[in-house]
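Internal ticket - ligand job 250, nicotinamide-adenine-dinucleotide:
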Amino acid sequence: MGAFDDKVVIVTGAASGIGAATARKFAVEGASVVLVDADRAGVEEVAAQLPGSVAEVADVSDEQQITALIDEVAEELGSLDVLINNAGVVVTGDIGSTTTEQWRKVMAADLDSVFFASRAALPHLKRSRGCIINTSSVSGIRGDWQQAAYDAAKGAVSNLTRAMALDHGADGVRVNAVAPGVVRTGMTEGAFDSEETMAKHVERIPLRRGGEPEDVADVIAFLASDDARFVTGVVLPVDGGVSASNGQPA
Ligand SMILES: NC(=O)c1ccc[n+]([C@@H]2O[C@H](COP(=O)([O-])OP(=O)(O)OC[C@H]3O[C@@H](n4cnc5c(N)ncnc54)[C@H](O)[C@@H]3O)[C@@H](O)[C@H]2O)c1
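stdout (structure tokens):
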């Protein structure tokens, strides 16, 4: 018996990193997993390794595409139990160096996507008394240097998580977020490839290592599980303790 037998789970950004690890975790626990990503080759490759899963190619920032996809999944698979809004992009820069195009791209991929997919999923989740888990970030709790657009988008994802939890708790729909610290994925290749950059990160991480995608996937699965049945509206750091600091040096 798996923890998610007979459950239908949508994971966005599932071609890579945290999303791919999350899709694997739910598949191992018996779920029917729908892996969504804009990267066709990547998402098909991950899904091919997971029995009972399907790959869907979509741009999560496109309202029509993601709405149609969610309705189609719920109709064809009979229900929707868990939506994991995980797809995202990062752009480096302060507001002086961030172009309008970059700003819009980050807001669309990281924030609009959560609104569109959650709104489309809500009627189905009310029927299944299901849940939403958003991938926010430690950058959605406090600020980073040189990540103005990303911090703005992830801060909004954290507070949208709380707003949705308040509004839909009475319908039996739980909404939570994970807030990862630095995790080894496609997004952070550069950091993990540089000993110097990683040393700076590790110095500030109480558990003294960067995260692996599975560290986050396991917490997402917990938040989606019945063990978290009385948990809603939390933005849970998965960061080796980095957000426990007030920023002062050791
Ligand atoms: N890696 C980290 O250190 C870290 C830390 C905190 C939060 N996060 C968040 O975790 C989530 C997953 O990122 P990751 O680190 O696994 O990165 P990743 O780059 O490995 O994976 C992100 C995936 O999202 C997909 N994607 C991006 N925009 C999309 C769009 N518009 N439509 C469909 N798919 C799209 C990409 O194709 C990619 O497969 C993101 O929301 C990211 O902001 C990552």
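Auto-summary: The chain has a mean pLDDT of 97. The domain at 8-233 is CATH 3.40.50.720 (Rossmann fold).
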